[in-house]
Design brief:
The structure holds 2 protein chains of 2 kinds. Chain A is an all-alpha fold. Chain A contains 11 helices and 2 strands. In chain A, a hairpin with a 2-residue loop joins strand 1 and strand 2. Chain A is globular. Chain B has a domain of 126 residues: P-loop containing nucleotide triphosphate hydrolases (Rossmann fold, 3-Layer(aba) Sandwich), CATH 3.40.50.300. In chain B, strand 7, helix 7 and strand 8 form a beta-alpha-beta unit. Chain B starts with a strand and ends with a helix. Chain B is an alpha/beta fold. The longest helix of chain B is centred in the last third of the chain and has 16 residues. The chains are: A mainly alpha, B alpha/beta. At the A-B interface, helix 6 and helix 7 of A face helix 2 and helix 3 of B. The complex binds adenosine-5'-triphosphate and magnesium ion.
């Protein structure tokens, strides 16, 4: 067993999870919507990427376009469905769960039941040496992308007026509206952003995970664990949580394959009991 | 009409099934300060919530400078020039002092003489300037109240709603808050001030409106109530 490789894969997988979970954390933190379509949006992005690439679009453009396409779909879901169910968490859970089944069916119809792999972009094939150890170049690329997105998202959220408005909406939505912030518009924006990130992550994850029916249900619990560990609405929490889960999941599968899910979910249970707001979450006021 | 900053007419409001406001009507004239009094649970905050759009009245109308606003969302009512200093302050805890002010900023409409800007709020409340980079949750109660007032002013309102701004503050801070309110009034701002402390309200108010169990029981100029030595005990409890 190559521990270095396992560690590198864990970190790359953590980066992918961050792209997936950042949106889930923002949507859950700001809008208190447990968006169970999030895994489906990831899978849909990946399938969009598959089609685009098969039509001759380059990998990176396909990833961007997949993200944008899924962002638009997310915006529609928010505007047409979730907007009508404010505060009704059970209804939101059921609607988003139902949608995830519908998306899964539609994908099965459109792209079939066989796993489809997305080829690693040519520039990032092979291995690179970092500190004398060989790592798959593409996975290093995924880590770089995740860190870049984390920095940009963090700066947007913590260093701009728009970000401050979003945080105000998380702190106290009604008061935010009373000071003139158009919280409903921000909700749509955040939902688009979060969905788009998931779709983008789907394509980026393609060369590592490939795309197959059930990918949605494989990814959703991971996003859930990340957000519960890190705390909803906390980008830093999603970042740290993603790498923790990436490590737990990969090491669990490699070292204790029978207990992989125990290794993954046990820490979540402990955190839920000991620190319900998550490691980096703020308990709601 | 033009000199009416705020008018509530026959407002009924409910929380679920519980009927809290019963046909509440009163006016805040332009540049005037209305003290809204009443015991705990009389419906003062509910009235404020209705004006701000935080609670939709089931009946009746609310007008801001003649524009009907009842049933509109809070952000639209804020755009009409209404700002709120809420009970309990409700500052944004995970924002810095500066951010709390910045997110509420809105350009002054047209002819405003001295518009409120970040600089002007910091001039008015120097302690906020010192703490501009601190998270709002680290402020003392008095500083949080200053921040809540500054945040409301950042939208350059025409009508300011203040819900018990002296609640839970040390006497010296209360005096500071009341001095600020006086200055805002001198600048011509129309203010609806909710107070538990009737004496404070009588010190600054032009008009007094008293609610009892969700009904207006007194609506008169403060000076007239004082002159006629009207006994308000039955409506206000003991002070
Ligand atoms: N969110 C709510 N849901 C249900 N009932 C409420 C709610 N808020 C207030 N009430 C009830 O409505 C009535 C009026 O409350 P309101 O907050 O307007 O009183 P208030 O005059 O502001 O009192 P206080 O001086 O204590 O702030 C009270 O009987 C209160 O219990
Ligand atoms: Mg009150």
């Amino acid at each position: 067993m190559n521990l270095w490789l396992l560690a590198a894969n864990s970190i790359a997988f953590g980066g992918l999870l961050f792209l997936l979970s950042a949106g889930f954390a923002l949507i859950f933190g700001l809008m208190r919507i447990p968006n169970l379509t999030h895994g489906s949006l990831f899978m849909l992005g990946a399938y969009f990427g598959v089609s685009l690439i098969s039509w001759g679009v380059g990998f990176w453009l396909a990833a961007l376009a997949g993200g944008v396409g899924v962002a638009v779909l997310g915006g529609l879901i928010e505007r047409l469905l979730l907007r009508r169910l404010p505060g009704a968490e059970l209804a939101q859970v059921l609607v988003t769960l139902g949608l995830s089944f519908m998306i899964a069916d539609a994908c099965l119809m459109q792209w079939g039941g066989d796993p489809i792999s997305i080829e690693t972009p040519a520039a990032l094939r092979g291995a690179s040496r970092v500190a004398g150890v060989a790592f798959p170049t593409y996975r290093l690329g995924v880590i770089v992308i995740a860190v870049a997105f984390a920095v940009v998202l963090w700066a947007m959220l913590e260093r701009t007026r728009l970000g401050a408005m979003i945080r105000a909406g998380v702190d106290d939505p009604m008061m935010a509206r009373a000071v003139g912030i158009r919280v409903p518009l921000l909700f749509t924006l955040v939902f688009c952003l979060g969905s788009g990130l998931a779709g983008f992550a789907g394509v980026i994850g393609g060369p590592i995970l490939s795309v197959y029916p059930g990918l949605d249900q494989d990814m959703l619990p991971l996003a859930l664990v990340v957000v519960i560990l890190g705390g909803s609405g906390s980008l830093v929490g999603a970042f740290v949580g993603s790498f923790v889960v990436g490590v737990l999941y990969n090491f669990g599968q490699a070292l204790l394959p029978e207990l992989a899910y125990v290794v993954l979910f046990l820490p979540m249970l402990v955190v839920l009991v000991v620190r319900p707001a998550g490691l980096f979450g703020r308990s709601s006021p | 009409m033009a000199n009416e900053a705020l008018r509530l007419a026959d407002v009924d409001a409910f929380y679920g099934d519980s009927h809290v406001l019963h046909g509440v009507s009163f006016i805040c004239g332009e540049g005037r300060l209305v003290g809204l009094l009443g015991r705990n649970g009389a419906g003062k905050t509910t009235s404020i919530n209705v004006v701000m759009g935080l609670l939709r009245p089931r009946r009746g109308s609310v007008a801001v400078y003649g524009t009907p606003v009842a049933g509109r969302p809070p952000e639209a009512i804020a755009a009409q020039g209404v700002a709120l200093v809420p009970q309990g302050r409700r500052i944004f805890r995970s924002l810095t002092v500066r951010e709390n002010l910045a997110v509420a900023a809105r350009k002054a409409s047209g002819d405003r003489q001295k518009p409120w800007t970040l600089e002007r709020v910091f001039d008015t409340f120097p302690r906020l300037a010192e703490r501009r980079k601190q998270y709002a949750s680290t402020l003392s109660g008095g500083e949080q109240q200053m921040l809540a007032i500054g945040r409301a002013l950042m939208s350059n309102p025409r009508v300011l709603l203040m819900d018990e701004p002296s609640e839970g503050l040390a006497p010296q801070i209360v005096a500071e808050v009341m001095a600020t309110i006086r200055r805002l009034k001198e600048e011509g701002l129309s203010i609806l001030l909710v107070e538990q402390n009737a004496k404070l309200a009588f010190d600054v108010a032009d008009d007094i409106v008293i609610l009892n169990s969700g009904r207006v029981v007194v609506d008169a100029p403060a000076a007239a109530l004082v002159r006629d030595k009207v006994d308000l005990h039955q409506h206000l409890g003991i002070y």
